[in-house]
Description:
The complex is a heterodimer.
Chain A lengths: L4 H8 L4 H12 L12 H12 L4 H15 L10 H12 L5 H12 L8 H4 L7 H14 L5 H4 L8 H14 L1 H13 L3 H13 L4 H11 L4 H11 L5 H10 L5 H16 L20
Helix pairs in contact in A: 1-3, 2-4, 3-4, 4-10, 5-6, 6-8, 8-10, 11-12, 12-14, 13-14, 14-16, 15-16
Chain B lengths: L3 H9 L4 H13 L8 H14 L5 H24 L21 H14 L5 H10 L3 H14 L5 H8 L4 H14 L2 H8 L8 H11 L4 H12 L4 H11 L5 H11 L4 H11 L5 H12 L4 H13 L20 H6 L10 E2 L5 E2 L2 H24 L9 H24 L3 H7 L3 H30 L9 H21 L1
Antiparallel strand pairs in B: 1-2
Helix pairs in contact in B: 1-2, 1-3, 2-4, 3-4, 3-5, 5-7, 6-7, 7-9, 8-9, 12-13, 12-14, 13-14, 13-15, 14-15, 14-16, 15-17, 16-17, 17-22, 19-22, 19-23, 20-22
Amino acid sequence: xxxxxxxxxxxxxxxxxxxxxxxxxxxxxxxxxxxxxxxxxxxxxxxxxxxxxxxxxxxxxxxxxxxxxxxxxxxxxxxxxxxxxxxxxxxxxxxxxxxxxxxxxxxxxxxxxxxxxxxxxxxxxxxxxxxxxxxxxxxxxxxxxxxxxxxxxxxxxxxxxxxxxxxxxxxxxxxxxxxxxxxxxxxxxxxxxxxxxxxxxxxxxxxxxxxxxxxxxxxxxxxxxxxxxxxxxxxxxxxxxxxxxxxxxxxxxxxxxxxxxxxxxxxxxxxxxxxxxxxxxxxxxxxxxx
Amino acid sequence: xxxxxxxxxxxxxxxxxxxxxxxxxxxxxxxxxxxxxxxxxxxxxxxxxxxxxxxxxxxxxxxxxxxxxxxxxxxxxxxxxxxxxxxxxxxxxxxxxxxxxxxxxxxxxxxxxxxxxxxxxxxxxxxxxxxxxxxxxxxxxxxxxxxxxxxxxxxxxxxxxxxxxxxxxxxxxxxxxxxxxxxxxxxxxxxxxxxxxxxxxxxxxxxxxxxxxxxxxxxxxxxxxxxxxxxxxxxxxxxxxxxxxxxxxxxxxxxxxxxxxxxxxxxxxxxxxxxxxxxxxxxxxxxxxxxxxxxxxxxxxxxxxxxxxxxxxxxxxxxxxxxxxxxxxxxxxxxxxxxxxxxxxxxxxxxxxxxxxxxxxxxxxxxxxxxxxxxxxxxxxxxxxxxxxxxxxxxxxxxxxxxxxxxxxxxxxxxxxxxxxxxxxxxxxxxxxxxxxxxxxxxxxxxxxxxxxxxxxxxxxxxxxxxxxxxxxxxxxxxxx
Lengths: 290, 481
């Protein structure tokens, strides 16, 4: 076969927008037997990442989709050195580092072969700059484990669409089953903050009975804040169970809940099916030392 | 009950070409009923699109007549009544390209093709991301070949490798129609199957429209590209092209700094007849500093005479090429006009290519004489010296083969340090010496037959063949002078 990632990466970096689009579509049809230089995947991965984070609005979705697909079937292949790792960690630890420096450091770290402890990166998930949030999600994409899932579930509720897409990509690594199990665990915990994070995530997921049932449980008398968020989240899930539940909640003892249920019912009747679908089956790509 | 139009559709789909031709003929004159269901029209349109461009003129004119008849009747009936459904006439909903039902996507694509709807470009491109239905994919590629710019060939390249033959074929046709020789060379040639004669002939036909000098110039440029993958791709292309010029360019790759390219250059030489050009390249690569390259070269050098010949694409002058450049090239001895064919259908371009074949025949004749003398069938004083030389060469080779067997025990160790090369070279030289001794024996014997000193008994076909070759050589010498 005679397709080369090295050539495809050059085409992705082209100033010709038409060629970039054509190459993205071409990449969406790539399978391992077609590629002669699999070890050069990192070049395409970087170009796709750059497009995903660029201002080329029309290509972002496609670039993320293609990268998501190819990441599952090609090894990253090239990793940052240990020396680079220390340099980057220094930048992250320094208070005088600029946004650009932090961004670059996070991107470089995402390409390091193995990062065991993600605790030092968690705070960047809350950074006010969406590019930094995306960059740290890159680290999570290649290094997070199941126990790190709860750090990022709330990011499906992020105000920035690009961050949402990057978060979805990380969640896709684990698959729907793992995500729902994680959300259930967060709801069952005693921490209100964790419960609300999980509810925010569920508000953005594609409707399914299991999610509606968890939200139903949250809408029952308990913490007012949790109940309110659960009812708002139900407004995004148009199904018979939701409508029945919201109608019932319209007669709640609390006026605030009644009003919330009423407005959620209005919303649900006009909502379309647009929630994020997390992949059912996953094969988590494993980083290997070069 | 099966209707008349259903029978016609069935016949258009027939595997029997005669039935298909008859159905096309009927379709070119068919009068459609006013209330015909749009589904039938779409099916016919899809079949006609599937026929593509026919090779023979008769089929092509029948297809065109059938399309014309269909078009004119659709226009006529649309103007007369509203019975024809909207999907047949002007209104096309491009949103149908995203329809969950493949039938709708197919119908929409048929309309895009029929009406050359350029606005559908983005939609068709987007559907290629996830489309899995083979027929839809095939139509989408055909649609792109009509509504898109030549640049789309870069995308179609990926479909050349599609496991479904129809899709792959459509992609190749689209690249040939939309692109130029560079696209054909870069996107189709590297993947072409050398065992598929039909495919080789198709590409040869397509490339015959272009000047071979331009083609070689394009490949040569790529061979010198600073990016290794481009040099590699150019070499892959060369491995599919026959002729001396291709060998000269492969020689550039044989000098590449990348051992991977050098090794592939060796493979690209395999199965070619030009021993005179190839053996020196292999001999040089045997001395390469990279142990793997030299091993591969040596292995192929050893097996060279046993390699089966491989059919490759033969670039010839374009039939209607009229530029100044081509006028000068027609004097080139490689041109079609000076190619002569002998009784075994081997094509010779110049006297030196005949010489190669004469050498092969002398080799065979020499072997035959050797066996005849060994078995006592003939005894000839004039051949005794050559016979002794052959015997000596055989003995030497036997000795070396024996040494090689004894050395097998330590071969792996020697391999590791590259120390077995000298032995292999010696063995190779002994094989060449034996071949040369056979050739000399054959040549001397042929001289004796020509002067009627010995009879042709047992070697008649070889002698006849050699006489033909010498005559051919004479003719070529006249043409070239």
